[in-house]
Design brief:
Layout: H1 4-17, E1 22-27, H2 70-83, E2 88-94, H3 102-108, E3 112-117, H4 129-136, H5 142-156, E4 161-167, H6 171-190, E5 208-210, H7 211-219, H8 229-245, E6 246-252, E7 264-266, H9 270-280, H10 284-288, H11 291-300, H12 309-313
Parallel strand pairs: 1-2, 2-3
Antiparallel strand pairs: 3-4, 4-6, 5-7
Helix pairs in contact: 1-2, 4-5, 6-8, 6-11, 7-8
Length: 314
């Protein structure tokens, strides 16, 4: 299951033998976020990343230790889109941990309509497929199905859980707003502003943080950036753009709206950034956007050329 060709052949078989105008794709099992990879069909083939555990994939590892990397996932969806140009993958349900990240949105937005997943861990029972099947019988729109799937999941599990769904047609605006916010943060730090945040919610471990909460901290005066009116304006636009992209978010346990909004971003300490930086730089998100430049500058003191600097500060 961790082999990209197997993934492609399964999709090809299903879409050939069971044609539909709209496709729901659900991916299971384990995931560990955007950063991790292993196995013979991954980027590890020709790179020395031996410190990454084999049990720590992006998603869907199998008994051989292989898994689907985000690069393989994107490539398979791209091939499927070319093979079936008149068919849309309307909804991707990530029934796996730590899959709802900004980086995933950036990689997959061109190929799917809606992404549903959790920025946190997913209980072993996973999605409520009985409820999803009943919902499909009514031929719902994709937003309705996403809302129903998220609600049914929350109602079928216990503990601390969060799950959301996002409309990829609004992803470009959100990513542009995040670009401008990231560039503004770099420029403010360059001008001597001590950024800092009082309290941004994080997810499993110390690698993934809530991106909505970052903007809210700036808006609500909980950051050194809050003293800059332009930064507050950029944070408000990023928050508006994310809200536009959001279809639904459901919470349970200790999570609530004041803590998280369900979409994470990679934000490590210096040691972990040094460990993962080479991989992170290979992401489409890093190649096309500014967040990695913010991490470079704040964690390593490296000032590079970020996108949109000219339009913001010329």
């Amino acid at each position: 299951m961790g082999d990209a060709q197997t993934f492609y052949e399964f999709l090809h078989w299903a879409m050939t033998n069971y044609p539909a105008d709209r496709v729901v794709l659900t991916i299971n099992p384990h995931g560990s976020g955007i950063l991790s990879w292993s196995g013979p069909t991954s980027v590890r083939d020709n790179k020395d990343y031996d410190d990454i555990p084999l049990s720590d994939p992006f998603i869907a590892y199998d008994g051989t230790g292989d898994n689907l990397t985000i690069f393989e996932f994107r490539k398979v969806l791209q091939r499927i889109q070319r093979k079936f140009p008149s068919t849309r993958i309307s909804l991707v349900i990530f029934d796996a941990c730590l899959s709802a990240g900004v980086e995933v949105v950036s990689e997959l937005a061109p190929f799917v309509d809606v992404i549903l997943g959790s920025a946190e861990t997913i209980p072993g029972t996973g999605m409520n497929y009985k409820a999803i099947s009943h919902a499909l019988e009514t031929n719902p729109g994709v937003h309705t199905l996403a809302k129903y799937t998220a609600e049914a999941f929350i109602n079928s599990v216990s503990g601390d859980n969060v799950i959301g769904a996002w409309d990829m047609s609004h992803a470009p605006r959100f990513l542009e707003a995040l670009d401008k916010l990231s560039a503004g943060m770099i420029e403010a730090r360059s001008a001597g502003v001590k950024g800092g945040f009082e309290s941004i919610s994080k997810y499993e471990g110390d690698l993934y943080w809530d991106i909505y909460d970052l903007s809210e901290n700036i808006i609500k005066g909980k950051s050194g950036y809050s003293r800059n009116a332009k930064m507050v304006s950029l944070a408000k636009e990023a928050l508006r753009a994310q809200s536009k992209m959001q279809i639904t978010v459901w919470y349970q346990g200790s999570y609530n709206r004041s803590d998280v909004n369900g979409l994470s971003i990679f934000w490590p300490d210096k040691a972990n950034y040094n460990k993962y930086r080479n991989f992170y730089k290979k992401l489409k998100f890093s190649k096309d956007h500014n967040w990695d430049d913010y991490l470079d500058f704040t964690l390593l003191g490296i000032r590079g050329h970020s996108h949109l600097f000219e339009s913001l500060y010329e």
